[in-house]
UniProtKB/TrEMBL annotation:
Name assigned to this protein: Pyridoxine/pyridoxamine 5'-phosphate oxidase
Comment on bound cofactor: Binds 1 FMN per subunit.
Lineage, highest ranks first: Bacteria, Pseudomonadati, Pseudomonadota, Gammaproteobacteria, Pseudomonadales
Binding site for substrate: K65, Y122, R126, S130, R190, L191, H192
Record EC number: 1.4.3.5
Keywords for the protein's UniProt record, in alphabetical order: Flavoprotein, FMN, Oxidoreductase, Pyridoxine biosynthesis
Presence of the UniProt keyword Flavoprotein in the record: yes
InterPro entries according to UniProt: Pyridox_Oxase (IPR000659), Pyridox_Oxase_CS (IPR019740), Pyridox_Oxase_N (IPR011576), Pyridoxamine_oxidase_dimer_C (IPR019576), Split_barrel_FMN-bd (IPR012349)
Amino acid sequence: MDISDMRREFESQGLDRDALDDNPVKQFQSWFGDAREAGILEPNAMSLATTGDSGMPDIRTVLLKYFDESGFVFYTNYGSRKARELTENPKAALLFPWIALNRQVRIQGRVEKVSKSESLRYFASRPRGSQIGAWVSEQSRAITSRGLLEQKVAEMKRRFSEGEIPLPDFWGGYRVVPERVEFWQGRPSRLHDRFEYVKQDSGWTIDRLQP
């Protein structure tokens, strides 16, 4: 199936260095606000790329749950494939594809687990069904049928029929600590605007990259 003729022009006002904040986290916050105001569906959805000992890249979509100067946080099962790969190689890349705004943000950095108190605080805020799901799923493991999964859900509902559901010890958060951040703004004729922040001991350097 040849789809090489699928294309569209990226019409936008462009991106100048003077319009960028010197801090990439503050610049991300500005663009994230634009994405929310534009009504983009789940603007916090991000592609997470990891590579374990095998050297085979892996990627999936997860949800950003918190960000600040210390990094970008998501949550998962600590027995999942992504978690195993992050144990083998604690580095990752993130991609926010805000195509409707002709924008994307790329982030690379080292990865660390968040504290148990942070995981507990977020877990407590989740809907009860999602809390049950965290207990039920051995994420990334094979299962013979969905019926077995639903049976495990019923068992957990009986187990936690009263009171608060505790945080599983195999579930929690990771923080991607940014070392390189790129802001991409689509422009006509594929002459896009790209600015890359790189972390240095003295702060962040900012360079315009060729499209």
